Amino acid sequence: MSNDASFLDVLINEHEIKKKKILIAIPCHLRLEILGVQLKYHMEVLSKKMSMHNLNVDFLYIGTNDLEGSYISKTPFFFEGCENVLSKKFNRCVSYALEKNYDFLMTLGSDDLIPFDLFVRLLAKAIESDFLSAPGQLYLFDIETQNVYKWIGYPLGTKLGVGAGRFYSKKLLNALPPNPFGIDKMYHMETTINKSIVQIMNQEAIDCECLSLFEEKDVILCLKSESNINQMSKFKSKNLCDINVIDIHNVIFDWLSISLKNEILELKKK
Fold first, then answer.
1. Is residue 265 classed as helix, strand or coil in its secondary structure?
2. Which of 62, 81, 174, 205 is deepest in the core (most CB within 10 A)?
3. How does residue 1 score in pLDDT terms, banded at 50, 70 and 90?
4. Is 218 helix (H, G, I), strand (E, B) or coil?
């Protein structure tokens, strides 16, 4: 057994992760070819590793149209239809987690790929805080140029980590106001919910320094094209990126299978 594997087993046992009921909720927005890559990753890699460790994790996709539903109906994952407003889809992630009594909610975009090791480390951190945990950074893959860039999140959310891959505890979910991601918003949902989180943290005297997790090897990979809500060009033009160009086949992405790496590189041709 590798050191990484044994360390994960220790985390899983020490934090009694197998006893937790977890929801990974993913609002969909167009980009069916990218959604297809994520579904393949979740089926062939992530969910299999979760099953191997006997983790109690459900996947919920919240989409808009029958085409998205038809993609997801071929998988073991849940699908729910929703109006095509991104904030409403994210708000539904929260209300669904509360209705179904999940212990923790993780939100992902339908263009995000999270490594299993990071998932476990983040969940352990969320259990410790009984509040929130989030990655301190992620990598953006530019489908057009096939370069990868490091990004550390929006200014307000820097100490809270990035929104992709963020865990919310049941305690935090219950403390959030109605529609925490905003109403009728297609942009800046993360900024909106961060304001509510900061307000709750101030009331509860929670130290935000312990909530974000910086990893250099096991980092979320976000697949970006010009059809995304937040296009790659917007990240560059607003100078929000701490840019380090990295090849997709770098050791950082060892957790991706060769077939998935090749499929990601093929996205440019679609």
1. helix
2. 62
3. very low
4. coil
Strand, helix or coil for residue 175: helix
d(CA 125, CA 1) in angstroms, rounded, equals 23
Residues in the chain: 270
Q: Which residues contact 78 (CB under 8 A, 6 or more apart)?
A: 58, 59, 60, 61
Which residue ranges form the domains of the chain, and what is each CATH number? 3-135+156-214 (3.90.550.10)
Confidence of residue 270 (pLDDT cuts 50, 70, 90): low
* Coil, helix or strand at residue 54: coil
> What order do you get walking across the sheet with 138-142 strand by strand?
112-113, 221-224, 138-142, 147-151
DSSP for residue 177: P
Q: Is 194:160 a contact under the CB 8 Å cutoff?
A: yes
Phi and psi at 234, nearest 5°, equal -70, -35
Distance of CA 9 to the CA centre of its chain: 22
Q: Are 183 and 87 in contact (CB under 8 A)?
A: yes
Confidence of residue 210 (pLDDT cuts 50, 70, 90): low
How far apart are the C-alpha atoms of 197 and 31, rounded to whole Å? 30
